[in-house]
Write a structure and sequence with these properties.
- The structure holds 2 protein chains of 2 kinds.
- By secondary structure, chain A is mainly alpha-helical.
- In chain A, 60% of the residues lie in helices and 0% in strands.
- Chain B is of the alpha+beta class.
- The N and C termini of chain B lie far apart (46 Å).
- The chains are: A mainly alpha, B alpha+beta.
- Chains A and B meet through α3 and α7 of A and α1 of B.
């Protein structure tokens, strides 16, 4: 799944100029990085930029993996496709971000190398993303929190001094707006539903709430890049996040859970590579095929 | 979502909706399939997820299947056969200018 020549060929076959033969399958596909200067800006630290792209990319990759686990298990066929679509959107964001990380740090590692050949300590996603799936209400609670937070970040990132990050954010904002809408509707439907659905929804919120504070705790890389106008300091979007959550919870007649945040380990969190027990199992499944095929599997 | 949970009786299945999508190249909405959804707004979102994921559409209509009144196959002959031999109903007796599209 790398951006090699046959991938570009597939894009070409279905873009606007060539869509006369394939129009029945959908037309007008576009490359979000078309015309974007992909050289790292001279005043931006390549290693920091790569680390930051891995943070945002790993959030999307790991969250996508958890959503993919709903395939064949969602309560309704329609929602199964909806959840899978959201997972695919996030996987797409992860691909662009990890590919950017591989070029920014000068190692030339591809998106596959970063996704499949790094160890647990090298993953920089927030721990919220790796939580084991609970019931559907739990997944909707996590999705609401994750997408509200990420949408707020990417909405600011569209002004990044790195043109690639800005282009990826611009694409992501439209996707995440829909993801957040989908999750919010389910949280409201279940919260303001029957007594039983409300109980399950409230329990789902309680399960993800300890992972909230970490989302707004800036890593030193984020702070350095935010000062350079490249990244967003996550602590600056807390207010916006709280306002959105308060609106959804009020409509859902749910209460914000009163639970203590999950502490880090000696002040280190997911962004530093410190993860929960669930992460090792997740990576084992995610990476097993690629690690067995040392020559590199094609798919 | 009225908040009055007692007033809503549980259903064993979500109602059926029919979905109509207008493509970028299409002038009108075309029936593309059906789906189940708990209400109109969710039906619209499910339609987006099920029927426009390959960039097919720019507009969606959904309607509860039970609100569609359809002709019956039993009525096929009295409904449609009488128009089969009335070619004069076609406006074929004048030239359409080349610059009039979509005719």
């Amino acid at each position: 799944m790398s951006f090699d020549s046959d991938y570009a060929g597939a894009y070409e076959a279905i873009t606007e100029e060539h869509d006369d033969t394939r129009w029945a399958f959908g037309t007008g596909f576009s490359d979000p990085l078309a015309g974007v200067d992909t050289t790292v800006p001279p005043d931006v630290d390549g290693a920091d930029l790569a680390a930051y792209c891995q943070m945002l990319g790993d959030d999307a990759l790991i969250m996508s993996h958890r959503l993919q686990e709903w395939c064949t298990r969602a309560p309704e066929l329609e929602d199964e496709v909806a959840v899978a679509n959201i997972g695919l959107d996030l996987l797409g964001q992860a691909r662009f971000l990890l590919a950017r990380a591989g070029t920014a740090d000068g190692t030339g590692r591809g998106e596959d190398d970063l996704a499949f050949l790094r160890g647990e300590l090298e993953f920089r996603n927030v721990r919220l993303a790796e939580l084991v799936n609970g019931d559907f209400a739990h997944t909707m609670a996590r999705l609401l929190v994750f997408t509200t937070w990420r949408l707020a970040l990417l909405a600011h990132l569209v002004d990044s001094n790195d043109p690639v990050l800005a282009a990826i954010a611009d694409k992501g904002v439209k996707e995440l707006t829909y993801h957040r809408d989908y999750a919010a509707r389910w949280v409201i439907r279940l919260g303001d539903g029957t007594a039983y659905s409300r109980e399950r929804m409230q329990a789902g919120l309680a399960a993800v709430w300890p992972y909230l504070d970490e989302l707004f705790r800036p890593h030193e890389v984020e702070l350095r890049l935010a000062a350079a106008g490249v990244a967003v300091d996550p602590s600056t979007v807390r207010e916006e996040f709280d306002a959105v959550l308060a609106e959804v919870l009020a409509a859902a007649t749910l209460d914000a859970p009163e639970v203590a945040p999950l502490p880090g380990v000696a002040g280190r969190y997911g962004r530093h590579g410190v993860h929960t027990e669930a992460m090792g199992y997740l990576l084992a499944e995610l990476q097993s095929v690629r690690r067995v095929h040392h020559e590199g599997a094609r798919w | 979502m009225s908040g009055d949970a007692a007033a809503v009786s549980p259903r064993s299945q979500w109602p059926l909706y029919e979905v109509f999508v207008r493509g970028k190249r299409g002038l009108n909405h075309v029936h593309v399939g059906s789906l189940h959804a708990p209400d109109d707004e969710m039906a619209l979102r499910h339609a987006r997820d099920l029927y426009t994921r390959r960039n097919e559409g720019v507009s969606i209509w959904v309607v509860r299947a039970e609100y569609i009144t359809a002709s019956s196959p039993d009525e096929k002959d009295p409904f449609f056969a009488p128009s089969g031999d009335k070619v004069y109903r076609h406006p074929t007796f004048y030239e359409i200018p080349d610059n009039v599209p979509h005719m």
